């Protein structure tokens, strides 16, 4: 970008900032443009502007402070700047910067103008207090706080050494107190701290006190050690996952759920989580903003629940609204705090916030108005305050009109923000209750619902509320007219309308009016049933397709019924063609048929076992009230069909369930339960695919935590399902399932977003009708394997070569550290026919090397591999020595998810899970990687379970239970042909009892010698045939 363009961009950015000064993304872009301009003044202005409106991270504060230090001579102004910077987020770099500033200024003052009064700025005592305060701010960081403490200790010892012997009492006391205070705090270097105290005690305390002092210090230290040990696993996980927000969420949740929460540790965990989320949000991670809001809300609630002092809570609230000014939930908590903590007998400072002022401040950000879920809690908090003022008798004559005006303003904002408004009608319900309870103005309540019905024309909840308001006013004729008008309309839950109308006529109508109502309802039911039948037919097809789609992602290997040949599948082999089927030659490994001609088949093929049609017979139920039991859900759905299973899952802030029927035909009826009520709470019922997204083409580094972080901002995630990689290690897609279809629809905005340059992510609602255009079910057939490449071959070389055969989707080439080719690559085409055509490039000369081209399907290649590997061992043996057995898996473990976790510690080739055993066999790239996993000292935690590892085949059979189900054909991960295959043909008779079909051969003699065929043909027979005699 040239100077003129950059200046124009800066001018436009300043215009946008003047209109939206609380938008963090605009400030981040403003700072970036200022850096490009190479103008220090402009950059400093951009940094200052950001810190004036929002909480800023250290990447903003430190450059600003350094710029100020170069031009500002007033130390007081700089100290104020540090104070403001440290109030935004917990930042060890800023605190360290502050300590360096204090130490340097103290040294300068001692030389130039030595302070005489202990309270003077930068006197030794003042500096000691200031340094202690800075170190205390960082002490809650359990793994990095020692950086600050070590700096303080070095400074304190320098002061001690420079102090005359007669005046050392105070410095010695300061050092002793800082050591003892530090030993009380859990941190990662407690041993070093204790050793430092021991050295200090031996050098500066009386020898006779040494033992007693260390015994007392050991008791203090013991409690801190236990406290840190309880958090060490989470701390190690943060280091290992590079401060993942998902790990922080787990860490903070554990601290909040503790039986006796430690506010020191809890607040430190939240402060670090908030600082990391803010950093990622400022750097452009859209999902981090949602995490930042969530961390703040949980932190504020934790402080309130654990009775933090008012100053601490107020300080956290002020920082929170500065950090996430677009969060209505945070503003609502601030207003409730101000109401709760207000004392009429206390004279507060003039600048103390008020509820009304805080409410206006929240709206002035122009951020809350962008989201219905932020508008509603903000306006409910303000309305609740005004209502309680009126109820307490402290409201003035304008109090009621103010309350009504607030609610009407909120309703209008909600409708402007979302065409469908608030589906739960929270503000409308509140306003009608205010009219009825506080003002005795039921006609106004009716008017509220009348206006709302014109906006939400298909919401049964609106119309039911409207008619109930009319009935309470004895406006029965008008209520009847409303029921008659809407009975045949296309409503989201017409049954509720019909039931309400019939109940109304039973209470208030004549016989004629009741029968007219029932006739109209019957007619409406016929119309609705006809429409639903068509929808159900379509839904059944979609659900059936969804089953196939989901099974492609994580279906377990199932046994396939065998033909008369008796061949059996081996583990991890799900699509083998049936051996011995008509129209194909006999395979070499099949037993030779007896002489005497073909025999008629007498055995009937067994039909494949019927699979449990789980997904096609299951509905998803959300918004379930707390405490609901499986029996209650079974009772709700029992009239739809026979219920096979009900599974209730407790998510962090929601209760959901899946209801599985024995028959798929029960699903359409089950969908009519949407909007029904359980325990006076409305539930949501929908097909799973409508809330499920198919996500593909994301970076290879993406894992479960990153996907949950990316998609979590759009709604509550029920599950993320990953495909097994045991057949194809390059599969890159997953299914993200939300608890509501609306959340999935909002997340579609991530479609085509580039998480890494040149790779736009694919995000689709998992509609079975679009399965073919986005599934990788045939990816094996569309991908070729290219070997024998020159080390100078590049990806463009391969693209140019293979695009002549058809559209190339992706080229993946293995490279050395220097970027040169390792000699092989994978090329994926858009169409299967193009991959087949590309096989013609086999033996093509590229960069003076003849290349080999085959299909990349690992199972196809396995059939054509040599019997023995390069190591000289059989493939079964070679596979075993690089495989390990993994135990203590959580129930329902996904193979793809387990592989993600293990790949962070070793090079994993593939994984196979045995769900019933809660075990898995993990095949590594080589025996060294297997050894790395077996000898690992730190535990690997998966879910909430600590995994254990052992050598495959060593401790399984001898243990109390088998290591895995006994394989039918000799073990896991064994290629189909990985057995000794004797030669058969001229002069060699095939040995029965060998090969994979040995179990179907005639048993041999007892001496172990192979039996001979009854009428084998030798070379003499062959010569006779050729000679025609």
- Identify low-pLDDT runs: 553-610, 859-871, 955-1019, 1025-1029
Text of the CATH class of the domain at 309-527: Mainly Alpha
Report the biggest beta sheet as strand number plus sense, adding barrel if it closes.
Answer: 4 strands, antiparallel
Task: Count all strands and give the number.
Answer: 24
What's the end-to-end separation, in Å? 91 Å
Quick check: average pLDDT?
81
Strand order of the largest sheet: 2-3-1-6
Which architecture of the domain at 309-527 per CATH?
Alpha Horseshoe
Number of helices: 38
**Structural class label:** alpha+beta
Shape, per Cα inertia axes: globular
CATH T-level topology of the domain at 309-527: Serine Threonine Protein Phosphatase 5, Tetratricopeptide repeat
Helicity level: 40-55%
Alpha carbon gyration radius:
37 Å
The proportion of residues in beta strands is: 5-15%
What structural keywords apply?
single chain, alpha+beta, Alpha-Beta Plaits, four-stranded antiparallel β-sheet, 50% helix, 11% strand, globular, disordered C terminus, RBD_domain_sf, RNA-binding, mRNA splicing, nucleus
How would you describe the overall organization of this protein?
This protein has 1029 residues and is α+β, with helices and mostly antiparallel strands. Among the domains are: 242-308, no CATH class; 309-527, Alpha Horseshoe (Serine Threonine Protein Phosphatase 5, Tetratricopeptide repeat); 618-768, Alpha-Beta Plaits (2-Layer Sandwich), CATH 3.30.70; 783-859, Alpha-Beta Plaits (2-Layer Sandwich); 875-949, Alpha-Beta Plaits (2-Layer Sandwich), CATH 3.30.70. Helix content is 50%, strand content 11%. The strands form 8 sheets. Strands 2-3-1-6 form a 4-stranded antiparallel sheet. The protein has a 4-stranded antiparallel sheet with strand order 8-9-7-12. A hairpin with a 2-residue loop joins strand 16 and strand 17 (849-850). Helix 19 (399-417) packs antiparallel against helix 20. The radius of gyration is 37 Å and the shape is globular. The termini are far apart. Residues 560-617, 759-778, 949-1029 are annotated as: Disordered. It comes from Plicaturopsis crispa FD-325 SS-3. One of its GO terms (molecular function) is RNA binding. Residues 617-690, 691-768, 782-858 form the RRM domain. InterPro entries: Nucleotide-bd_a/b_plait_sf, Prp24_RRM1, RBD_domain_sf, RRM_dom, SLIRP/GR-RBP-like, TPR-like_helical_dom_sf.
